[in-house]
Amino acid sequence: MTWANWTGDERCDPSVILRPTSVEEVAALVRSAADTGTPVRVVGSGHSFSDLVLTDGIMVDLSGLTGLLRVEAGTGLVRVAAGTTLAELNVLLDRHGLAMPNLGDIDHQTLAGAISTGTHGTGARLGNLATQVTAIQLVAADGTIHELTGQDDALTAARIGLGSLGIITAYTLKVVPAFHLRAQSGPMAVSELLGRLTEFVDGNDHFEFYYFPHAPTALAKLNNRSQEPLRRPTKVRQFVEVDLLENQALDLVCRVGRRLPAQIPRFNRMVTGFLTPASRVEVSHRAFVSHRSIRFTETEWSIPREACADMLRDIQHVIERQGLAVNFPLEVRFVAGDQASDLSPVYGRDSAYIAAHMYRNMNWRPYFAAVQEIALGYGGRPHWGKRHQLDAARLADLYPAWEQFQQARRKFDPTGLFANNHIRRVLGP
Length: 429
Ligand SMILES: Cc1cc2nc3c(=O)[nH]c(=O)nc-3n(C[C@H](O)[C@H](O)[C@H](O)COP(=O)(O)OP(=O)(O)OC[C@H]3O[C@@H](n4cnc5c(N)ncnc54)[C@H](O)[C@@H]3O)c2cc1C
Fold this sequence. Notes:
The chain is an alpha+beta fold. It has a domain of 203 residues: FAD-linked oxidases, C-terminal domain (Vanillyl-alcohol Oxidase, Chain A, domain 3), CATH 3.40.462.10. It contains 14 helices and 20 strands.
C-alpha cells in the first residue's frame, strides 16, 4: 500500500501500516519488529514536507490513540494521547475552558508529529509547541515503556526527536485558560515594516508577515489577546477573504506563474494591490489556524531575530539575480529561544523563522538551495519537518546539545530500529 505525504510528492511502500489502540499494543509491535530486525517509522498526519517518515518497513499510525486522558484541575496540566490531532485537542481543551497558548498555521497535524519536529507559531515571548511538554510516555526500541519527566535529561532529548528515539504514546502539556484574540491583518509598506520590525514584534502577542518577492507591499498579521466579545466577519466576507483571496486567487496566480514565470513579478505586485485591512475577535485557536487548500512544498529556517531584514533582502536579491520563478510569499514569524529540547531550532536564541514555499509541480530545488545558503550565512537552523539538504556533520555544529541527544538515541534505540534514510542523513548512523 503506497503512502504519500500531504503535498503528495514524497511516497513510500511500507510492508505494513499498523494502527495500535493501546500503549501495550505499541510495545508488543515494537518488540516483535525488534525480534525480526524490521525497521519501524511512526507517522502522524503526514504533513512534513520531506522524506522524514518514509519507510519500506513497518509504518505505525497512532490514529487509534487519541483523546484527552486527564485534566489536572488548577495546575494547567493535561495528559493527551499522542495521536490526537491539534484540531481535536483544541475542541477538547475548549470544553474545559483551556487552550494552547500558541499554534501554527493549521491544525491537521497530530500532537506527536507537530511536537517532534519543533512546530511553532509566532510570538516573540512564546516558545515552540515542545516547550509546553512537561512529561512524555515513550516506547523504546526494546519495547520498554518509559515515563520521561522534568527530572530526566532524556525529556530534553525526546521533546523534539523526529521519531528517532521511540514511539511517543502520551504527553503531559502545560496549557492556559481559554482566551480570545483580536486578529488584525492588512497591507503594509515593506520599508515601514522592516524599519519598525522590533516595535511590531515586541508590541504584539503574535506578529507575522508575508513578504511577496518583487512587491513593495507585505501582508501583516497581528493577533493580540482581547477581553472583547467575539466579532466575526460575515460568511460572505469570510468567503471573499479566505476562500477567494487567500486560496483561490493565490492558486490562480500560482498556476499562471507556473506557465508564465517571466510574469511573476507583475503578478506578485498585482496580488498585493488587492490586500485590504481586516479585523475580527475570535476564539484563540480559530484565529491562529487558516484554511489551506493550495498544495505546496516548503523550506523554513530559524535565524537570530536581528538578521531577519537582511536575510529577506538577500533572498530578494538572489531571486532577481538568478531569475528564480517564485510566486509564493515568504512567511516570517518570531519565536522565543529555549533550551527545553536538545534539537530545538531556536536553541539558546530568540529567533525569526523565514519560510519559502514552492507551488506543487514546480522546481523547488534551486530556490530552496539558495535560501539554505543564505540562511546558513546567518547561522540558520532548518525546521525539522521541512525540506533542507544538511547532513549530520553540518547539523552537529549548529546544535550545542547535539551530543546529549545522541546519548539518548544510543540509550533508547541502540540498533537504529526507528531510523530511515532521512534519519541516518540528518542524525547520523
Ligand atoms: C499546510 C501545512 C502547514 C504547516 N504549518 C506549520 C506551522 O505553522 N508551523 C510549523 O512549525 N510547521 C508547520 N507545518 C509543518 C508541520 O507542522 C510538521 O511537519 C509536523 O511534523 C507535521 O505533523 P504530522 O502529524 O503530520 O507528523 P508527520 O509529518 O507524519 O511526522 C513528523 C515527525 O514526527 C514523528 N512522529 C509522529 N508521531 C510520532 C510519535 N507518536 N512518536 C514519535 N515520533 C512521532 C515522525 O516519525 C516524524 O519524524 C505545516 C505543514 C503543512 C503541510
